[in-house]
Design a protein that fits this description.
Order of helices and strands: HHHHHHHHHHHHHHHH
């Protein structure tokens, strides 16, 4: 049997799970790898886009970089909330697909569009309202407040579009098709380069141009993603039969059960990151910029973990939807091991390539030195960071979100922020990143313990 023949294709292997057929160990590993690769490429494309934004804005000077960096944690909060709402429906789609109930998957998708659009408009309205004062609340210095406010205002206006892009991509992935969302996200990098160049340099709009460039790229990819899901996807195409877009009580109840803990965790988690930004802010403009560049550079290493995590959510969701309990546990172990190995290797790369990773975004020597030092501290945490990321994806696929979200919150609020508060005044930016390194290792350990001994597989939560 050829390794990459039709018998070992992604769709074929997923259908074997749904039909109750046995998979060899080779097929299990191959399926995990084939689902992970498109997701890894997709996540890496997000990193490339961040690099593009950072390097283009970095060419405008330290103040421009600090303006964007100051708002980054709040932007992550907004995108995290959009993702949590999308996940609450996408996991249900995975369960339906695992049970071979494609009509049910499409019913959930219709309701997801309605709920997610309403939430995107709601969140966008709130963020637009606070965009003027938010940089001040975050402790930004007077010279960067105006640029940061303008940048965030434009981002806030496009949150409903971002929400539709995220939900469309999530349901496509959970249906078993990870290639198309990955292709769109990779294409978005090229759109981002094109639009950023136009707005920042041709139109000479500075920091505001970076916001418009990203907004244009997100809008283009949202049209592609939603258009494919609604009109083209063989599993999700809504033109197959008539259906209602009005949310149903049972679907909303399951979405609430899955998504609410994730949403609260995103608020608290990103709230902690915003507080961490407040801890960094008094260290000065160079530290703010170096912290932002360091986070962007580190994401090159941990985004493969998030890609494998997305694949694990699809595998676990469909495996449990098909009631393949033993196989589901095996697939979970495979993806967790794969994630830890990949990110361990990326940690080694990050340690030695740190000067080039930061140097790509800035030629300011002080920012460069601070950023390189931070990355080399963080490199040691990558394997255990992977453990927490992929375990989390496994738990989400099982519909188990409350305990993992609580674990994330306790880890970052009690361990990371406490250590950062005491270490930052003594060691500066290095103290903040040392606190992060210690906390990520601790988080990886507790997630592995829950996977090994915890009760995370709740069959009563599986929609069929």
């Amino acid at each position: 049997m050829a390794l990459f023949g039709k018998e070992n294709g992604t769709s074929y292997l997923l259908q074997m799970i749904r039909d109750g057929k046995e998979l060899t160990l080779q097929q299990q590993i191959l399926l995990a790898v084939m689902l992970s690769i498109p997701s890894i490429l997709s996540q890496m494309s997000n990193v490339v886009m961040s690099y593009i934004d950072a390097s283009m804005v970095g060419s405008l000077g330290a103040e421009a970089s600090a303006s964007v960096g100051l708002m980054s944690t709040t932007i992550w909060l907004c995108s995290g909330l959009c993702a949590s709402v999308s996940t609450s429906f996408a996991v249900q789609v995975a369960h339906m697909m695992g049970a071979n109930n494609r009509v049910g998957a499409r019913e959930i998708f219709r309701q997801a569009i309605t709920v997610c659009l309403a939430f995107g408009i709601f969140l966008g309205s709130i963020t637009i309202a606070i965009s003027g004062q938010l940089p001040v609340w975050l402790g930004g210095s007077p010279e960067i407040v105006e640029g940061a406010s303008d940048y965030f205002f434009i981002y806030a206006c496009f949150i409903p579009v971002l929400q539709l892009k995220i939900v469309a991509g999530a349901v496509i992935r959970c249906s078993g098709n990870l290639k198309f969302p990955s292709a769109v996200n990779i294409s978005m990098c090229f759109f981002d380069v094109l639009f950023n160049y136009f707005f920042i340099f041709v139109m000479d709009m500075g920091v505001v141009g970076a916001a418009w460039g990203t907004a244009a790229a997100v809008t283009t990819s949202a049209i592609l993603m939603l258009g494919y899901a609604v009109f083209i996807s063989s599993d999700l195409r809504l033109t197959r039969e008539k259906g209602s877009f009005l949310p149903k009580k049972d679907v909303l109840a399951k979405a609430f059960h899955i998504g609410m803990p994730v949403g609260i965790e995103r608020i608290m988690f990103n709230g902690a990151q915003i507080l961490a930004t407040r801890i960094v802010a008094p260290l000065g403009t160079f530290s703010i910029a170096a912290n932002s560049f360091g986070i962007t550079a580190e994401s090159l290493c941990y985004m493969p973990g998030y890609g494998i995590s997305e694949a694990s959510t699809t595998l676990i969701g469909q495996g449990l939807g098909a009631m393949r309990i033993s196989l589901t546990r095996k697939l979970a172990r495979i993806t967790i091991t794969m994630g830890m190995c990949v990110m361990a290797l990326m940690g080694v790369v990050m340690y030695f390539a740190a000067p080039y990773m930061i140097g790509f975004m800035t030629d300011n020597q002080q920012i460069l030195e601070l950023g390189v030092s931070a990355l080399r501290i963080e490199a040691f945490a990558e394997p255990m960071f992977a453990a927490s990321i992929v375990c989390y994806g496994v738990f989400v696929g099982a519909g188990d979100t409350l305990v993992p979200c609580t674990m994330n919150l306790c880890s970052i609020w009690i361990v990371r922020l406490t250590l950062a508060y005491f270490l930052a005044p003594v060691y500066g930016l290095n103290g903040v990143w040392l606190a992060m390194c210690i906390e990520l290792c601790f988080r990886g350990v507790i997630f592995l313990c829950r996977f090994k001994w915890g009760n995370w597989m709740h069959l009563d939560r599986i929609g069929r």
